[in-house]
Amino acid sequence: MVYFFLQGGRMAGLWRSYKTLMTKYPWTVQIVTAGSLVGVGDVAAQQLIERRGLAHHNIERTAKMTSIGFFFVGPVLGGWYNVLDRLVVGGTRTSALKKMLMDQLCFTPGFLASFLCISGTLNGLTVEENTNKLKRDYMDALLSNYSLWPAVQMINFYFIPLQYRLVFVQIVAIGWNSYLTWKVNKM
Fold first, then answer.
1. Interacting residues of 164 by C-beta distance below 8 A, sequence separation 6+
2. How far apart are CA 184 and CA 118, in angstroms?
């Protein structure tokens, strides 16, 4: 289905353009993609989960979340996938399992805590408020993470070439970002 979708018409042209840009400017394209899709996740959270409607959409919040995508999520995940590919070489199921375990057990807990703290800081929380919010929301977010991401990362590390891993994860993450932006912005 994805193959058919990418082979036909306008989407095929967009995909070819994306691949060309990814070949020429991989780091920049990955960061712009991640930032944009974190922003899309916030729009989805506000419109689909919170049902704010366009008249009550918080543009400042979307801008903050998008900036987290551009300046934190994109660079950190892009760099992490490069490091992980050097630490665990190969494309076997065993290598994919090792990468997924390292990602979920070593990387994710700190990444998620950092994301929550950065979001709190951008939302104007004091250190004490941010700490309390982290205590309240972290375990729930981490457990929610473990219900989705191990399977996604197995697919990612086994089937997806390195240069497309961040975009694959960020497409899946539109739903996850919707959840996270809702979580970090509920007071």
1. 22
2. 10
pLDDT in tens, 101-152: 999 999 999 999 999 999 999 999 999 999 999 999 999 999 999 999 999 9
Instruction: Assess contact for 130 and 115: CB atoms under 8 A.
Output: no
**In whole angstroms, what is the distance from residue 108 CA to residue 168 CA?**
17
What DSSP line would sit under the chain, residue for residue?
Answer: -HHHHHHSHHHHHHHHHHHHHHHH-HHHHHHHHHHHHHHHHHHHIIIIIS---GGG--HHHHHHHHHHIIIIIHHHHHHHHHHHHHHS---SHHHHHHHHHIIIIIIHHHHHHHHHHHHHHHTT--HHHHHHHHHHHHHHHHHHHHHHHHHHHHHHHHHS-HHHHHHHHHHHHHHHHHHHHHHHH--
Q: How many residues does the chain have?
A: 187
- pTM score of the predicted model: 0.86
Q: Exposure pattern of 102-137 as b/e (b: 16+ CB <10 Å)?
A: bbbeebbeebbeebbbbbbebbebeeeebeebbeeb
